[in-house]
Amino acid sequence: MKLVLGHLYGDLLNLYADRGNIIALQQRCAWRGVDLEVRQIGIGEAVRPDALDLLFMGGGQDGDQRLMADDLFRLKADALRGALVDGLPMLAVCGGYQLFGEYYQPAEGPPLPGLGLFDLHTVHPGPRVRRCIGNVVVEWLTAGTVDQSHVSSRESHVSAAETGPGARLVTRAPAPAPLGRGATPPVRRTTLVGFENHGGRTYLGPGARPLGRVISGHGNNARDGTEGAVVHQAYGTYLHGSLLPKNPHLADHLLTLALRRRHPGATLAPLDDTAEWRAHEAIVKRYGRRGAVRRAA
Ligand code: GLN
Q1: Would 169 be classed as within a structural domain?
Q2: pTM for the whole thing?
């Protein structure tokens, strides 16, 4: 069983260990006997969504965003818009998230056009205004829900071969005990934890659901208590960290979405996430006090 992840601008956009998200996905796949191949998609290269199961784009500073925004808009926008409607699972962090919206107005200079995948826009109020920096704890509002609105358009693409026995391979894989750890307790958690550092303030339109509600930290704009956005199977967030190692439920959610596009009904074998949840809980304990929404400006 194999999955392919497209990594957009991996050489330019990799703040606060964003690449760790891919390492986490690869390792969680490997523990289950699934090979996750990573394909770098850089400047000048086209996106071929049909060959992908997942897409990731990390964060970058204004200068790095300016280097690739034009390429993103000219060379990749059409393919990515089609991929969104087709239900390709995507994760975009911070600078990548901002460019998934309609536009990003950086601290200085002209605005950068966005992909328009998300109904949102982002404005940096200027270099003298305080940045949104710190640990974040979020209530994941869409936890456990899967947007199905793309399914009817996708159905015609799923061939009989794709619903074959490979799907059960993953379901049947025995739960490994990596690093000699014990059995997995069933956990259902709805918090997400991460680290944010952004000047841009993001404002959602009616076409974008927030990914979460800020318990502590700044989130989208330090004012309305929203964090990130979800449209179809695409997820945008300000959470670096990197995000997925400390949020195994989100990592597995993305992997499940990717698997089910090829193998409807497939489920992932559980893993022993004791260490991952300990890291998650440490942040929740320290920063997860309700009502601790900070205001940067
Ligand atoms: N350049 C953007 C900002 O400061 C994004 C930064 C980031 O990706 N961490 O708002």
Answers
A1: no
A2: 0.86
